[in-house]
Amino acid sequence: DDLVAAADRSDTPLFASPMVSTELMSHLSHYLTQELAEIMLMHGVFLEVTGMGVLIKGNAGVGKSELALELVTRGHRLVADDAVELKRVAPETLEGNCPALLRDFLEVHGLGILNIRYLFGETAVKQQKNLKLIVELVHPHEIGEVGLNRLDMVASAETVLGVAIPKVRIPVAAGRNIAVLVEVAVRNHIMKSRGINPVEQFMLRQQAAIDGTAP
Question: Among all residues, which ones are annotated catalytic?
Fold first, then answer.
Protein backbone atom coordinates (compact mmCIF):
# COMPACT_ATOMS: atom_id res chain seq x y z
CA ASP A 1 0.00 0.00 0.00
CA ASP A 2 2.84 2.41 0.79
CA LEU A 3 4.37 1.68 -2.63
CA VAL A 4 1.09 2.37 -4.39
CA ALA A 5 0.68 5.63 -2.49
CA ALA A 6 4.23 6.69 -3.37
CA ALA A 7 3.61 5.88 -7.03
CA ASP A 8 0.40 7.94 -7.00
CA ARG A 9 2.16 10.93 -5.45
CA SER A 10 4.93 10.91 -8.06
CA ASP A 11 2.75 9.89 -11.06
CA THR A 12 4.97 6.84 -11.55
CA PRO A 13 3.51 3.84 -13.41
CA LEU A 14 3.36 0.75 -11.22
CA PHE A 15 2.34 -2.79 -12.02
CA ALA A 16 2.70 -6.21 -10.42
CA SER A 17 3.26 -9.65 -11.91
CA PRO A 18 3.48 -13.18 -10.51
CA MET A 19 6.35 -13.92 -12.95
CA VAL A 20 9.93 -14.17 -11.77
CA SER A 21 12.06 -11.16 -12.67
CA THR A 22 14.03 -12.77 -15.53
CA GLU A 23 10.88 -14.08 -17.24
CA LEU A 24 9.08 -10.77 -16.76
CA MET A 25 11.97 -8.75 -18.21
CA SER A 26 12.05 -11.04 -21.26
CA HIS A 27 8.35 -10.41 -21.92
CA LEU A 28 8.68 -6.68 -21.27
CA SER A 29 11.70 -6.36 -23.56
CA HIS A 30 9.80 -7.95 -26.45
CA TYR A 31 6.69 -5.86 -25.76
CA LEU A 32 8.57 -2.56 -25.55
CA THR A 33 10.59 -3.38 -28.67
CA GLN A 34 7.35 -3.80 -30.63
CA GLU A 35 5.51 -0.83 -29.13
CA LEU A 36 8.38 1.68 -29.30
CA ALA A 37 9.80 0.66 -32.67
CA GLU A 38 10.06 3.20 -35.49
CA ILE A 39 7.23 2.60 -37.95
CA MET A 40 6.61 3.63 -41.55
CA LEU A 41 4.26 2.61 -44.35
CA MET A 42 5.62 1.68 -47.78
CA HIS A 43 3.73 1.09 -50.99
CA GLY A 44 4.23 -2.33 -52.52
CA VAL A 45 3.51 -6.02 -52.06
CA PHE A 46 5.28 -7.91 -49.29
CA LEU A 47 5.71 -11.68 -49.53
CA GLU A 48 7.65 -14.55 -48.06
CA VAL A 49 9.56 -16.07 -50.97
CA THR A 50 11.59 -19.22 -50.26
CA GLY A 51 11.48 -18.32 -46.58
CA MET A 52 12.72 -14.73 -47.09
CA GLY A 53 10.80 -11.46 -46.71
CA VAL A 54 10.67 -9.71 -50.11
CA LEU A 55 9.12 -6.32 -50.86
CA ILE A 56 8.03 -5.86 -54.48
CA LYS A 57 8.01 -2.21 -55.56
CA GLY A 58 7.27 -0.37 -58.78
CA ASN A 59 5.11 2.26 -60.41
CA ALA A 60 1.37 1.77 -60.68
CA GLY A 61 0.40 -0.67 -63.43
CA VAL A 62 3.82 -2.34 -63.66
CA GLY A 63 2.41 -5.70 -62.54
CA LYS A 64 3.20 -6.01 -58.82
CA SER A 65 -0.08 -7.65 -57.82
CA GLU A 66 -0.09 -10.02 -60.80
CA LEU A 67 3.44 -11.08 -59.89
CA ALA A 68 2.40 -11.57 -56.26
CA LEU A 69 -0.53 -13.74 -57.34
CA GLU A 70 1.74 -15.91 -59.48
CA LEU A 71 4.21 -16.30 -56.63
CA VAL A 72 1.39 -17.37 -54.30
CA THR A 73 0.29 -20.00 -56.83
CA ARG A 74 3.92 -21.25 -56.84
CA GLY A 75 3.77 -21.91 -53.09
CA HIS A 76 5.04 -18.64 -51.62
CA ARG A 77 3.12 -16.60 -49.03
CA LEU A 78 1.46 -13.18 -49.02
CA VAL A 79 2.08 -10.85 -46.10
CA ALA A 80 0.66 -7.52 -47.31
CA ASP A 81 -0.62 -5.87 -50.46
CA ASP A 82 -0.54 -2.15 -51.28
CA ALA A 83 0.43 -0.87 -47.81
CA VAL A 84 3.25 -2.52 -45.86
CA GLU A 85 3.87 -1.53 -42.24
CA LEU A 86 7.57 -1.69 -41.44
CA LYS A 87 9.00 -1.59 -37.92
CA ARG A 88 12.63 -1.28 -36.92
CA VAL A 89 12.72 -3.91 -34.16
CA ALA A 90 16.53 -4.14 -33.93
CA PRO A 91 19.47 -2.04 -35.18
CA GLU A 92 19.65 -4.00 -38.48
CA THR A 93 16.21 -5.65 -38.56
CA LEU A 94 12.97 -4.44 -40.17
CA GLU A 95 9.77 -6.36 -39.50
CA GLY A 96 7.02 -6.15 -42.11
CA ASN A 97 3.34 -6.44 -41.20
CA CYS A 98 0.00 -5.97 -42.91
CA PRO A 99 -2.47 -3.38 -41.56
CA ALA A 100 -5.43 -5.27 -40.04
CA LEU A 101 -7.90 -3.79 -42.54
CA LEU A 102 -5.98 -5.23 -45.53
CA ARG A 103 -4.95 -8.60 -44.10
CA ASP A 104 -5.39 -11.58 -46.49
CA PHE A 105 -6.52 -9.38 -49.40
CA LEU A 106 -4.80 -8.86 -52.75
CA GLU A 107 -6.12 -6.52 -55.46
CA VAL A 108 -5.45 -7.70 -59.00
CA HIS A 109 -6.40 -5.63 -62.06
CA GLY A 110 -9.22 -7.32 -63.94
CA LEU A 111 -10.12 -9.63 -61.04
CA GLY A 112 -10.77 -7.15 -58.26
CA ILE A 113 -10.09 -7.86 -54.59
CA LEU A 114 -9.18 -11.46 -53.77
CA ASN A 115 -9.12 -13.15 -50.37
CA ILE A 116 -5.92 -15.18 -50.62
CA ARG A 117 -6.59 -17.13 -47.42
CA TYR A 118 -9.96 -18.35 -48.71
CA LEU A 119 -8.66 -19.08 -52.22
CA PHE A 120 -5.41 -20.86 -51.39
CA GLY A 121 -5.64 -21.80 -47.72
CA GLU A 122 -3.94 -20.90 -44.46
CA THR A 123 -0.44 -21.66 -45.75
CA ALA A 124 -0.72 -19.01 -48.49
CA VAL A 125 -0.61 -16.08 -46.06
CA LYS A 126 1.67 -14.99 -43.25
CA GLN A 127 1.15 -12.36 -40.58
CA GLN A 128 4.66 -10.89 -40.48
CA LYS A 129 8.16 -11.35 -41.83
CA ASN A 130 11.51 -9.59 -41.59
CA LEU A 131 12.40 -7.60 -44.71
CA LYS A 132 15.58 -8.92 -46.36
CA LEU A 133 15.31 -7.97 -50.05
CA ILE A 134 13.61 -5.33 -52.20
CA VAL A 135 12.65 -6.15 -55.79
CA GLU A 136 11.85 -3.13 -57.94
CA LEU A 137 9.98 -3.75 -61.17
CA VAL A 138 10.87 -1.24 -63.88
CA HIS A 139 9.96 -0.68 -67.51
CA PRO A 140 13.03 -0.92 -69.79
CA HIS A 141 12.84 2.80 -70.67
CA GLU A 142 13.10 3.69 -66.95
CA ILE A 143 16.58 2.20 -66.63
CA GLY A 144 18.27 5.06 -68.45
CA GLU A 145 21.73 5.26 -69.95
CA VAL A 146 23.46 3.77 -66.91
CA GLY A 147 21.51 0.54 -67.23
CA LEU A 148 21.70 -2.42 -64.90
CA ASN A 149 24.74 -4.14 -63.48
CA ARG A 150 24.75 -7.29 -65.63
CA LEU A 151 27.25 -9.10 -63.41
CA ASP A 152 25.55 -8.59 -60.07
CA MET A 153 21.82 -9.15 -59.49
CA VAL A 154 22.01 -7.37 -56.11
CA ALA A 155 24.00 -4.34 -57.16
CA SER A 156 22.38 -1.70 -54.97
CA ALA A 157 20.65 -1.11 -51.67
CA GLU A 158 17.83 1.08 -50.37
CA THR A 159 17.91 2.63 -46.91
CA VAL A 160 14.66 2.14 -44.99
CA LEU A 161 14.39 3.46 -41.42
CA GLY A 162 18.18 3.67 -41.34
CA VAL A 163 18.71 0.05 -42.43
CA ALA A 164 20.33 -0.73 -45.80
CA ILE A 165 18.24 -3.35 -47.62
CA PRO A 166 19.69 -5.05 -50.74
CA LYS A 167 17.70 -4.20 -53.87
CA VAL A 168 17.28 -5.85 -57.25
CA ARG A 169 15.89 -3.99 -60.28
CA ILE A 170 14.15 -6.27 -62.78
CA PRO A 171 13.05 -4.90 -66.19
CA VAL A 172 9.50 -5.92 -67.08
CA ALA A 173 8.93 -6.93 -70.70
CA ALA A 174 6.69 -9.24 -72.68
CA GLY A 175 7.78 -12.86 -72.52
CA ARG A 176 9.83 -12.55 -69.33
CA ASN A 177 8.88 -14.85 -66.46
CA ILE A 178 9.25 -12.35 -63.63
CA ALA A 179 8.20 -14.85 -60.94
CA VAL A 180 11.13 -17.11 -61.83
CA LEU A 181 13.51 -14.14 -61.84
CA VAL A 182 12.32 -13.13 -58.35
CA GLU A 183 12.83 -16.67 -57.07
CA VAL A 184 16.34 -16.74 -58.53
CA ALA A 185 17.12 -13.31 -57.07
CA VAL A 186 16.13 -14.60 -53.62
CA ARG A 187 18.22 -17.77 -54.01
CA ASN A 188 21.17 -15.70 -55.23
CA HIS A 189 20.86 -13.41 -52.20
CA ILE A 190 20.77 -16.43 -49.85
CA MET A 191 23.94 -17.82 -51.46
CA LYS A 192 25.73 -14.48 -51.09
CA SER A 193 24.71 -14.25 -47.43
CA ARG A 194 26.42 -17.63 -46.96
CA GLY A 195 29.60 -16.38 -48.59
CA ILE A 196 29.03 -17.88 -52.05
CA ASN A 197 29.42 -15.11 -54.63
CA PRO A 198 28.96 -16.26 -58.26
CA VAL A 199 30.29 -12.95 -59.58
CA GLU A 200 33.58 -13.43 -57.75
CA GLN A 201 33.72 -17.05 -58.91
CA PHE A 202 33.24 -15.96 -62.53
CA MET A 203 35.89 -13.24 -62.27
CA LEU A 204 38.41 -15.64 -60.71
CA ARG A 205 37.79 -18.17 -63.48
CA GLN A 206 38.15 -15.45 -66.11
CA GLN A 207 41.41 -14.21 -64.59
CA ALA A 208 42.74 -17.76 -64.43
CA ALA A 209 41.94 -18.17 -68.13
CA ILE A 210 43.79 -14.93 -68.93
CA ASP A 211 46.79 -16.02 -66.82
CA GLY A 212 46.78 -19.44 -68.42
CA THR A 213 46.34 -21.21 -65.08
CA ALA A 214 42.80 -22.49 -65.65
CA PRO A 215 42.45 -26.27 -65.29
Answer: 43, 64, 82, 150
